[in-house]
Automatic annotation (TrEMBL):
GO terms for cellular component: cytosol. It comes from Candidatus Anaerobutyricum stercoripullorum. GO terms for molecular function: flavin adenine dinucleotide binding; UDP-galactopyranose mutase activity. This is NAD(P)-binding protein. Gene3D superfamilies: NAD(P)-binding Rossmann-like Domain. The lineage of its organism: Bacteria, Bacillati, Bacillota, Clostridia, Lachnospirales. It comes from the Bacteria.
Length: 61
């Protein structure tokens, strides 16, 4: 069984940035995510060349 320095639950903004920064410092990370994409609630989809927030900008208010 492979061992990791960090287990990160969720590939949203914090989880993705944390994993990126730790791997730059040489740590190993395992990121698990229930959705089929990374980015969490800031995820966007391309609709006719326009990036549309899948979960709506209202979640940030």
């Amino acid at each position: 069984m492979k061992k990791y320095d960090y287990l990160i639950v969720g590939a949203g903004l914090f989880g993705s940035v944390f994993a990126h920064e730790m791997t730059k410092k040489g740590a190993s990370c395992l990121v698990i995510e229930k959705r089929d994409h990374i980015g969490g609630n800031i995820y966007t989809e391309d609709v006719d060349g326009i990036q549309v927030h899948k979960y709506g900008a209202h979640i940030f208010h």
